[in-house]
Amino acid sequence: MADQIKISTGSSWESQVGYSRAVRIGNHVEVAGTTAFRNGKIVGIGDAYAQTVCALEIIKESLEKVGATLSDVVRTRMFVTDISRWEDIGKAHSEFFQDILPVTTMVEVKSLINPELLVEIEAVAIINE
Fold this sequence. Notes:
six-stranded mixed beta sheet, 3 helices, globular, alpha+beta, CATH 3.30.1330.40
């Protein structure tokens, strides 16, 4: 089995639930569902665009910690609590990925781990070495 690189952002949920923010095995990287939770606080309460930007910034930072970039992302999955906000969420996603064009999914879910969270995003990257 290839060596694994695991990173954490220090979120209390990571230790409480028992997961890594990102895991790299070989050239494959999986980034866990990521929300706008930074430094113990929810960023952009009530603002789906701001929360999406924050989550994608955390994903970008996590990828970089394992030697990947946004350009390596081949898939994102977006879980949103109000699909009527899809344009704001899509706008933020496009700002990060308009030139990369990974496959993506956006689905509405009943709720996330905290009711003030509006968006959770997963990412998969394949590093071209």
